[in-house]
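ARCHIVE RECORD
Type: protein–small molecule complex
Small molecule: S-adenosylmethionine
Source of inputs: curated submission
Record status: active
Notes field left blank by submitter.
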Amino acid sequence: MTVGAHIAPIARSHIENADIVFFAGHPLMEMWVTEMNSNLHSLQVFYAEGKDRRITYKEMVNAMMTEVRAGKKVVGAFYGHPGVFALPPHNVIKIAKKEGYAAHMVPGISAEDCLYADLGVDPGKVGSQHFEASQFMFYQRQVDPSAYLILWQVGIAGDKSAAKFSTGKAYRQILVELLNENYPNEHKVALYECPTVAIREPRIEWITLGDFIEAELSLITTMLIPPSQKLLKNQSIIDRLALLEKNAH
Ligand SMILES: C[S@@+](CC[C@H](N)C(=O)[O-])C[C@H]1O[C@@H](n2cnc3c(N)ncnc32)[C@H](O)[C@@H]1O
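STRUCTURE (tokenized, with ligand):
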């Protein structure tokens, strides 16, 4: 997430010892990874506004698999955690294994991890639920308003084409109306962006849900929605557990 800071020693070691490294992330991160292995090929070249990301992801997988099939030791380095809200890393490992090659993922520090640290949120306090914003809109999901709700990719919320780099206010209006089923417009939400370089501060902007429609969003914005309801006791389970305790003595 942050250049020069967020990498596990095992991930660095794999990158340093690879024959070829494919990279997806910010140009500054790419420069950092190039210092670890100069045979780096950018996967960013496959992205283009107006191009279906599902095609982009297939092209990324094909580029990596071509080198695997040529017998090379290949690393796909993706910013954040490679397996969090990211399709190509999971797909390429699946395909490589199916073809008989040894392949595995090592974890990284995701946007979620940085969010917990920067916003001082413990996901275990009342529980947390994560959704990709568009999927949250396209499907009927059960929201628990007594837990944290974290929405990813809010900058492209509602994009059916999977080809946009941003969606507009009309899309966000629909998302807000959907959220209004559990959260009033005055409910405070946080827009979060972890900095790419350590000298920058994270973006932590507390706004009302209603103001989200006009908010400035980017491709890296994540939204945290704190609970709107208190935890409700499950008295029948509590009673059954109390009975167990009583019978044990
Ligand atoms: C395709 S996902 C990739 C997530 C990445 N694999 C990770 O582990 O964080 C992109 C989404 O992750 C979140 N994200 C990525 N970079 C971020 C950052 N610097 N700060 C906050 N959220 C970020 C945003 O919700 C963004 O729309």
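CURATOR ANNOTATION: The mean pLDDT is 96.
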